[in-house]
Amino acid sequence: MSDERDARPASGHENPDWPVAFRGVTESVVTTLGPNDLWNVAALGLHPPEASDSPDESGESDATVTARTWGNTRTRRNFHRRGGGYVQFTRDPVEFADAALSIYEIEEPVLESADAWAEVTVERVDAGESGGTEWEEWELVPRETGVERETVPTVSRGFNAVVEATVAASRLGVDAYDQSALRDRLAYFEEVATSCGDRRVERAFDRIRESVDAQLR
Length: 217
Prior knowledge:
CATH topology of the largest domain: Pnp Oxidase, Chain A
Distance between the termini: 38 Å
Helix content: 25-40%
C-alpha cells in the first residue's frame, strides 16, 4: 500500500463500529486473500437484521451484519480458508462492475477508490439452495475500520444503473430467471446510464457488455 494507506486511521476500539449506517441492503465490495497471495475483489450485499432498520440518533447500530455467497465462488472459498476479509464502500462504477462480473485480483487489500473499509471476521451461520444454486450465509464482525474520505451524499442514477445491471448480468444463464426479462432490464439500465452517467459509468457499461457477450458465446 501507499504511505497514505499505511497511515489510515484505526477505530481504536476492541469491537469497532461499522464506518457506515445500514438501512436495507447495502452494496459493498469485499476483498479476500486467495491461495495465490492476491486479494480477490467481489461484490457483496450486506444485510442488517430487522432490528437495525431503526438506528440510534448517531445512525449507527450494533446489530450483526450478514451476507450471502452464491455458488462456489472465490469469496466463499476464501472465507472458509481465511475466516475474513476487507469490506469496502466505493462509489467508482468501474471498480464495482469489475468486482461483480469478472475475476479481479489486486496486491493490497484496500482499493484506492474505497471511501471507507472494515476488516472483518466471518462465521458461517446458515446454508441452503435456491433456484439450483447453493448459498451460504455469513455473519460479519468488524475488527478494524477506517474512513479514507468524507463526502456529501448524492444520488447518482448512473451508478445505481450500473449496480442493477450487474445483478441482471450475473443471472444470465441461470435457469431460475426469465432470460428475456433480464435482457430487457439490461437494455433499460444501459439507457439510464447513457442519459445520466459520466465517463466512468460509460466505461463500467463497457465492462458489463463484455461480460454479457462472453456469457452468450
